[in-house]
Amino acid sequence: MDQLLAALEWDMANGIQFTGKLLLIAGVIIAVVGGLLLLSCRIPWLGKLPGDIFVQRKNFTFYFPLATSILLSIIITLVLWLLGRK
Fold first, then answer.
1. Whole-Å CA distances, 35 to 15, 21, 44
2. Contact present, 85 and 78 (Cβ < 8 Å)
3. What are the extents of the domains in the chain?
């Protein structure tokens, strides 16, 4: 019985440590994304690439940054791939 309680306490401690690490990593990711959003206005071509869709009519404006989304997706994929390599 004592071994079972010790095992449960050990699992709970590992779960709390894992949750703490997960929250810390999520916080760092959110801070990095926030910083990038703050700096994005300083990149003049971001959102104005040739593949971005922009339609403006009399009463209506539609903007879909297709090329920008694809470029950011490729960059994020490469960064995560490089970080995930062992």
1. 30, 21, 16
2. no
3. 1-42, 47-86
